[in-house]
Amino acid sequence: MIIFGSKLQLISQHIGNQLRFRKATISCAESCTGGWISKIFTDTIGSSNWFECGFITYSNKSKQKLLGINSTLLVKFGAVSKIIACEMALRAKSISGTDYSIAVTGIAGPSGGRIDNPPVGTIWFSFAGPKDKIFTVCHQFKGCRDIIRYQSVFWALQIFYKEFLMS
């Protein structure tokens, strides 16, 4: 995991440098990643200048209580959906007052994928930025729970960096 950790730290440093340069801040709303993105950010020296907070909203109840996501949306679309990922990103950004936010929701396994649910490895990402820019995408990962979660964190950081900080 040391190699994985160093890749995550490197991209976090790049994100931090760009956010610091822009005098911007970021927040996270995480479900299946359980706060891993927030951890990577806070492991980065100087992150207090650009990382505001993270919401770990693993259950539907916490998504409602902490982020204010409407229970009707959760019932209609499910927690692992484009609409919920988008709502998580927008709410995290709004509640925290940050310039950007990253949201992740999905099924890391080993169980959870059912007929009424997407398969294990289905992860929705949503990124919110200034001027109401939002980018939401789904990706399917393979592997065990830890690998799916690691890939989700790394993928989220890479996409945020490319789509919001380098475009």
Key terms:
167 residues, alpha/beta, five-stranded mixed β-sheet, 6 helices, globular
Q: What is the strand content?
A: 15-25%
Q: Kindly report the spatial arrangement of strands forming the biggest sheet.
A: 2-1-3-4-5
What is the number of E strands? 5
Query: Residue share in helices?
Result: 40-55%
Structural class: alpha/beta
Order of helices and strands: HEHEHHHEEEH
Number of helices: 6
Largest pleated sheet: 5 strands, mixed
Secondary-structure blueprint:
Blueprint: H1 2-22, E1 26-30, H2 36-43, E2 51-56, H3 60-67, H4 71-77, H5 82-96, E3 100-106, E4 122-128, E5 134-140, H6 145-165
Parallel strand pairs: 1-2, 1-3
Antiparallel strand pairs: 3-4, 4-5
Helix pairs in contact: 1-6
Report on this structure:
This protein is α/β, with parallel strands linked by helices and 167 residues long. It has six helices and five strands. A five-stranded mixed beta sheet has the order 2-1-3-4-5, sandwiched between helices. Helix 2 links the parallel strand 1 and strand 2. Helix 1 (2-22) packs parallel to helix 6. The chain starts with a helix and ends with a helix.
